[in-house]
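> agent: user asked for a holo structure of the chain below bound to S-adenosylmethionine. Plan: (1) validate sequence alphabet, (2) canonicalize SMILES, (3) run complex prediction with ligand conditioning, (4) return tokens. Step 1... ok. Step 2... ok. Step 3 dispatched.
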Amino acid sequence: MSYLETTHDVYKEAALSPDVGLCCTTNPIWELPGLKIPKIMQEMNYGCGSTVHARDLTNNPKMLYVGVGGGMELLQFAYFNRQKGGVIGVDVVEEMLEASRKNFKAAEELNPWFRSDFVELKKGNALNLPVDDNSIDVAAQNCLFNIFKEEDLKKAIAEMYRVLKPHGRLVMSDPTCEQEMNENLRNDDRLRALCLSGSLPIADYVKLLTDAGFGTIEIRARKPYRILDPKHYDTDELIYIESIEVAAIKDPMPLDGPCVFTGKAAIYFGDDDFVDDNNGHILLKNQPLAICDKTAAALASLKRDDIFISESTFHYDGGGCC
Ligand SMILES: C[S@@+](CC[C@H](N)C(=O)[O-])C[C@H]1O[C@@H](n2cnc3c(N)ncnc32)[C@H](O)[C@@H]1O
């Protein structure tokens, strides 16, 4: 049986009987004014962060959500769009589509503004999306891509890139791990399907996105996720897994490389009112300017003693350079 078949079986099971401990993190459940999340959707929250960010969702964006789970985030996306077919949901597991269809009916009962046909469910594979080129403003996946092995992951990212309109954004949440994971863990198909042993270091994850052509990357959150310990897993050392929230924006690739925002800021504290780096960045005296890692490196290379560059907070929420 291939790891994709094991994944299919794991999520068929999770569709038929909700598994409250599967994936899931410390994120609070988003309930906005007039938005109620049915209990069954909360029990089937198989994500590891949130992909729903209000600032991505202005002007009735056409949305795509890959790997629907219990449908909670599709309901949250539909809240911002409220149009027939405004959110396309794709999943490869028939039973998961069926479960989410039922959950949307439950959501109709709790949310007078919501209609099930705001979501168009399609059976399909993240590796070959049943969606037209350049047709989506906001695409999302939560806790699915970490399951894929590298060649499949490249395909899944390329598919998201293909369906997004220019400047469209891919919003994601996935586990990441900065430690080496041994081959036994990596090749344990069930652990991989459970989002425990497929994760990559953040830099590798980001590189796959920029290699696919995304010109801007935003790391929006980084949180503790899971521990794999020697007593319960096939490992000699304790492995710490985190989860991140990332947006990859289909901006043209800048000639000098991608803009990757990891939450760094530059603060000028010299004698003038401002300093201009002659590369598009004006630093006002003692005002933080959010900068991407490329700009941080360029400013650091000036070796000035009146510009402070902060560490990455991994909590970038917009604004700043590039
Ligand atoms: C970890 S769950 C996450 C569910 C949902 N995103 C959430 O946050 O609750 C992974 C989801 O991806 C679906 N899935 C697994 N393999 C897939 C594939 N190759 N293509 C599309 N969906 C897939 C599963 O059926 C399941 O709904």
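> agent: step 4 complete. Summary for user: The two ends are 46 Å apart (CA to CA). Residues 263-309 form one domain.
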